[in-house]
Amino acid sequence: MKLSFSTLGCPDWTLEQIADNARTLGYDGVELRTHADGNHLSPDASPAEVARVAALFAARGAKIISIKGYTKFAFLDDATVAENQALLRKLVAIAHGVGAKYVRTFAGQIPEGADHAAMTKRVADAIRPVAQEAAAKGVRIALEIHDDWCAGAAVIGLVDRIACPAGFGIVYDINNAFHAKRESWQTTYATIKDHIAYCHLKDGYDTGDGKVHYVMLGAGDLPVKEILAKFAADGFSGYFSFEWEKKWHPEIESPERAFPHYVHKVRALWREVAARRAGA
Description:
The protein is α/β, with parallel strands linked by helices. It has a single domain, classed as Alpha-Beta Barrel (TIM Barrel), CATH 3.20.20. Helices cover 45% and strands 17% of the residues. The chain has 9 helices and 10 strands. It has an 8-stranded parallel barrel with strand order 1-2-3-4-5-6-7-10, surrounded by 6 helices. The mean pLDDT is 97.
């Protein structure tokens, strides 16, 4: 098990602060958000800028594990799909340039009235050629469980159609899938576990109005210890990336408080569940 954090949680930090804090706080890597809004690297970054960022992180002993992109493909319009394919190719090139293994993507909300099976084919057909190109560069596109794709069977439909395990996998957003309430977390995990690229981990509680309020790990509704115990039992060696949504929810705890707490909490719980297994 390894730990990383998404820079969604530290929108005001510079790249230098991100790299330094990743090392000093005990993280194994960083999921670098890549967006035109300036956090934290433009999708249109030049090769020289990409090389500069790669050198900055390397000099500070920090690792970029994923480029966190915002491409989507569940559209009826061919031109919009093509635009997102072009953007995804840019992100794959950036990932390759900084030495990141993954590029995060979405499938997207299915348009009203559209058939889910038809959109599964459309999304898969759009991602497949880019996934094949990514695999040739040692990069894996990782689709986040989100929107209409929060059940295991829905994302496995994409995995099966894309059929490129070296170039395509799943970002298991554990809390998001849990609060979507499409199925139990045990069902989701059992369905997708062999295709997980890495996980997003955070905690929150249902406010009763269909919204989730984010809280420090262990203080919400997510059965964190039970989930980590299952991952540990299955020998999970990938990343649990802390997706603290500070950019979208400025009222939640600062990264200066939330980021060190996450490292302490996850590592302590992992040691606890490992010790229980050893003594069983």
